[in-house]
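Please, structure for the following, as tokens.
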Amino acid sequence: MDRLPLFKGHVVDLGVEKVTFPDGRSFELEVVRHPGAAAIVPLHEDGTVTLIHQYRHAGGGMMIEVPAGKLDGGEVPDLGARRELREEVGLEAGSLKRIGVIHTTPGFCDERIFLFLATDLTDVGASPEETEYLRPWRMPLTEAMQMVVDGDITDAKTICALTLVEKHLEKPS
């Protein structure tokens, strides 16, 4: 791949890449490379979910999200999901099911977020990273979905993950 590196940080790798379209035309495009991420909906037996209220500087302040984080150094998505679940909300899942994958901003970034449903939960104590400011927030799934409808939850991965969990629960066993 023909790539001119511009910036490499802890999370993103920005460069200009020469791209050839299917019709043969070539252009230079700015592309962000990202290691991918895992996002988890922890669903408790009583129908509640544990979300997080997290400070997001780039997003303008506090946001309501599902627990999530980037995959570390080629980490397998389900292991990353289990790690993030423990770190951010102090839960371990007896069952972890992949329910989807999303491309966050395919116009300029290759980030994919793997979405999971975590059940059979055990509290093990949280240990968020030093660079995170977050607080777990447990609520009924129905209330979380209403917050999506009302525009109180605007984070795309959270909207997708909650919607997929709701659809998953609607399916007959």
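The chain has three helices and ten strands. The first strand starts at residue 3 and ends at 8.
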